[in-house]
């Protein structure tokens, strides 16, 4: 699709769903209060027990505690690169009682052609928070610093095995490739080894079967506390807090790169402005609670709420940036 065509498609989607123009805002009007949810289904494109699932269940609990949502159940629909979860939204167009966790992987999978769905065909409601990717080596690794690791990778990008979960080209792969490119590494020559989970890739790293692991922050705390790994850099704009406060960012170490993987909320196509305004208002209330802040701190996520008036622009920028990195990796056509 051409850039002009892309903008036209976005405009058409905005008209079809009643979305305001970017930047116009979604302030609730008297009409917005005319829609109230019934029994809500919150679909998670991952299995029970994962970080995505835990965040969704906390959000559902807090939503019900506001007294504005009679019931919200969380259903797990893993598999199919997110298509199984998207199928639920497909079956309920225009129904504001169906929501889904929106992840950066949805964009990656679309760009890679893994799925035949376009995120622009649905209703993005909000971005909730950012998570970051860390560069990890074994505690026994000869690479004590990021500088030493980068020197070796510039000389021979293919020599070191990098473990990622769960697939080549996903947000974790992009999360390490983006700063490596900024550091002068030929990312088209990287040796990437996919694993079913970050727990498996960490086990392989500690066992000496991998040289490097790229993983998001919730997966670091256990092996870090056990002294089994060394974290050389994190892709956040500033240092994280708590137990990861000692880990320097890429920027601190002379590499001007930030890599973000976002999570948010997606609704079915055709939602009305009243439905979107309701959820925007409720989510803004939920993310201000101490319980939600505790979830963010526990997983080393950073809250960054973006409402429906701006989230489409954000996703469009992320789509273009991700596509550029995937092209550099040789996974899609430039």
Description:
Belongs to the UPF0065 (bug) family. It comes from Verticiella sediminum. Keywords: Signal. This is Tripartite tricarboxylate transporter substrate binding protein. InterPro entries: BUG, Bug_dom1. The chain has 334 residues and is α/β, with parallel strands linked by helices. It has 2 domains: 187 residues, 3-Layer(aba) Sandwich (D-Maltodextrin-Binding Protein, domain 2), CATH 3.40.190; 122 residues, Periplasmic binding protein-like II (D-Maltodextrin-Binding Protein, domain 2, 3-Layer(aba) Sandwich). Helices cover 38% and strands 20% of the residues. It has 11 helices and 10 strands. Strands 1, 2, 3, 4, 5, 6, 7, 8, 9 and 10 form a 10-stranded mixed sheet that branches. Helix 6 links the parallel strand 5 and strand 6. Helix 4 packs across helix 11. The longest helix has 21 residues.
What's the helix and strand layout?
Layout: H1 3-17, E1 39-44, H2 51-65, E2 71-76, H3 83-90, E3 98-103, H4 104-112, E4 123-138, H5 146-155, E5 161-165, H6 171-182, E6 191-195, H7 198-206, E7 212-216, H8 221-225, E8 229-234, E9 260-267, H9 273-286, H10 290-299, E10 302-306, H11 308-328
Parallel strand pairs: 1-2, 1-3, 5-6, 5-7
Antiparallel strand pairs: 3-9, 4-7, 4-8, 4-9, 4-10
Helix pairs in contact: 2-10, 4-11
CATH architecture of the largest domain: 3-Layer(aba) Sandwich
Strand residues, percent: 15-25%
Shape annotation: globular
- Helix-strand string: HEHEHEHEHEHEHEHEEHHEH
Name of the level-1 CATH class of the largest domain: Alpha Beta
């Amino acid at each position: 699709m051409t850039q002009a065509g892309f903008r036209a498609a976005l405009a058409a989607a905005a008209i079809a769903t009643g979305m305001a123009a970017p930047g116009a805002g979604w302030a609730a009007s008297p009409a917005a209060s005319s829609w109230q949810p019934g029994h809500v289904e919150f679909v998670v494109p991952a299995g029970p027990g994962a970080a995505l699932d835990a965040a969704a269940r906390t959000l559902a609990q807090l939503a019900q505690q506001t007294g504005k949502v009679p019931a919200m159940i969380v259903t797990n629909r893993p598999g199919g690169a997110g298509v199984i979860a998207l199928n639920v939204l497909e079956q309920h167009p225009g129904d504001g009682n169906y929501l889904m966790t929106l992840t950066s992987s949805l964009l990656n999978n679309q760009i890679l052609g893994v799925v035949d769905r376009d995120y622009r065909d649905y209703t993005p409601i909000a971005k909730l928070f950012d998570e970051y990717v860390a560069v990890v080596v074994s505690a026994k690794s000869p690479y004590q610093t990021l500088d030493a690791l980068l020197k070796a990778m510039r000389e021979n990008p293919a020599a070191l095995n990098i473990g990622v979960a769960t697939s080549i080209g996903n947000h974790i792969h992009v999360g390490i490739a983006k700063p490596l490119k900024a550091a002068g590494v030929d990312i088209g020559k990287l040796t990437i080894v996919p694993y079913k989970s970050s727990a498996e890739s960490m086990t392989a790293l500690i066992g000496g079967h991998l040289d490097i692991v790229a993983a998001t922050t919730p997966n670091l705390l256990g092996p870090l506390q056990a002294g089994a790994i060394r974290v050389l850099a994190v892709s956040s704009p500033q240092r994280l807090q708590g137990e990861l406060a000692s880990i320097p960012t890429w920027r601190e170490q002379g590499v001007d790169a930030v890599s973000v993987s976002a999570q948010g909320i997606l609704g079915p196509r055709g939602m009305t402005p009243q439905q979107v305004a309701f959820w925007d208002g409720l989510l803004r209330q939920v993310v201000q609670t101490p319980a939600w802040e505790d979830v963010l701190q526990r997983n080393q996520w950073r809250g960054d709420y973006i409402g429906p008036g701006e989230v489409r622009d954000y996703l469009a920028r992320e789509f273009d940036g991700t596509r550029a990195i995937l092209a550099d990796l040789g996974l899609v056509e430039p």
